[in-house]
Amino acid sequence: MKALFFGLFTLLLVAGCGTKEEQLIKRANKIHASVLTVDTHCDTPMLLSRSDFDLGVRHEEGCVDFPRMKEGGLNAEFFAVYTGQGPRNDSSFNKVHQKALDTFDAIHKNVGKNSSLAELAYTADDAYRIKKSGKIAAFIGVENGYPIGKDITNVKQFYDLGARYITLSHSRNNDICDSSTDPKGAENNGLSPFGEEVVKEMNRIGVMVDVSHISDKAFYDVLKLTKAPVIASHSSCRALCENPRNIDDNMLLALKQNGGVIQICIVSNYIKTPEPNPELDAKLKELRGEYGDINGLSDSLRNQVRLEYTAIRKKYEKLATVKDAVDHIDHVVQVIGIDHVGIGTDFDGGGGIDGCRTVVDMKNITIELVRRGYTKKDIEKIWGGNVMRVLSEVEKIATKG
User: Fold this and answer.
1) What is the pTM of this model?
2) Is 263 a domain residue?
C-alpha cells in the first residue's frame, strides 16, 4: 500500500513539475510575442549573391529568412553588408566599394519583392511601427569599414542606402583602425587619423559606431572621441570566454559610461572556450587546405566554403548551449546593468549554438531568461529596447550636429 501511495505521489509530483514548466514556456512565449525582438547581426546577405536565394522563401540551408523569422518571433534583423579585408590600394578599394553597393542593392531588391512580409527600417520608430503592422523590419549594417576606402564621403553614401551601423574593421587591420585578431598585431596603434574622421562623420550623420572586431586600443580611442553611444553588434564577454573578439569587464564599464550596448554573439567559440576536438580541427584544416584564404575567392566559391564549413561544424563541433549564452547576458547585467545588453547572433557568419541554431529557435533564449527570473520589462530591454535606445540617441545627436 505504501509503495502504491509513493508511486501515485511521484506521478503527481512529476505532473506538477511538467505543468509548471509548461506554464513557464507559455509565459515566455507570451512575452516574446509582445516585445520588440531585434537581432543586430546576420551575414545572410552573402547568400543573396545567388540569384535564386529569396528571403521570402523558407529554406533548409542557412539560418535566416522571413518565414523562419516569423516562426521564431524575430521582429527585426540587421542584415550585414560584409566585405572581407583585402589589399588596400585604389584598384582594390574600387572593387570592394562596388561589391558593397551590389550587396546593398541585393538587400533592397529582396525586401522590395517581399513587401507583404518585410519593410526596410531606418529609425527606431520604424522598427516599432513595422512590428505593429505585422511585418518584419529589415535594418542594414556594414561589417568592415574596408569599402569606405580612404573616401570619407562613402560614409554618407552608405547611410543614404540604409546603413545604420558600421563595424569599423573585421579580422584584419584596415585604414580606419586595428583589428582584434590581425596576426601581424597593431598597425595604427588603435584608431588611425582617418578613422577619427570616420567616427566624427558617423556621429554627424547618425550612424552607430560598431566596436565589434576592433582592437582594445581602438575601442578606447573610439569611446574617447565619440559624442554618441556605441554598439558592439556581435560580441560576448571575455570574463567567461577568453577570446580577443570578446570584451573584458573594464571595457564593459567604459561602455556603460558611454551609454552603449553589447549585443551577445552566439558564435560557440565566443560563448564557451572549446574543448580539444582533433577531429573537427582536422576537417577544418582540410577545408582550408582545399580553398585557401576565403577573402580571395569568388562569391560562389565563398558560399560553397561556407556551406561545407557549416556542415563540418554541425557534424563534429561540440556547441555551447543557450544556457551558456544567457550566462553572458547575466554577466553583463551583473557588471553594468540591464540597460546595456542585447543579442547579435552572427547567424550565417558562424553563429549558432545548441538550442538556437537558426531564427526558428529564438524563443528558447526568452524561455531561459524567464527561467532565470528576468521580468517582461527586462526582456523587452534585452531583446530590442536597449539597442533601439542607442539608435534613437545617435539620431538625436546627429540632428543637433
Assistant:
1) 0.90
2) yes
